[in-house]
Predict the structure.
Amino acid sequence: MNIYDELEKLKKLLDDGTVTREEFEREKARILASAASGNPPGWDIGIDERTFAALMHASQFMTSFILPLVLWLLFKDKSRYIDAHGKKILNFEMSYAIYTVALCLTCIGLFAVPVVAVAMLVFIVIGIIKALNGETWTYPLSIPFLK
């Protein structure tokens, strides 16, 4: 839903008498402020989308896919930007888990798994930087399970 739809819906509530003029003005100011900050209406968790997406990428260092999955599930409906980043992170984690298991089943795995681990660390840092710059970045060799 875009800013104009939000404002139109709010105006209808005022016209119907559901909200007071004071509530209307307060909510209108909130919607306009969120649009000016670059965040979508409804995104009011205290930090901007870019920082939140960067934190989702960084959370992989602590919990692999668990915390990014929880954050994505909680906030994917509030922002298309967060939804896109969450999908990219989960595709990356699932893909690299498959690659790691496949490598461990072969003799090459002893030498390749440490290389993959270092590459994952570098890719996560790149993902954090891209998120802070407002870009949606697809991790290399990620299989698009979630589109």
About this structure: The longest helix spans residues 80-104. Residues 7 and 28 are 7 Å apart (CA to CA). Helices lie at 3-16, 21-36, 49-58, 60-63, 66-75, 80-104, 109-132.
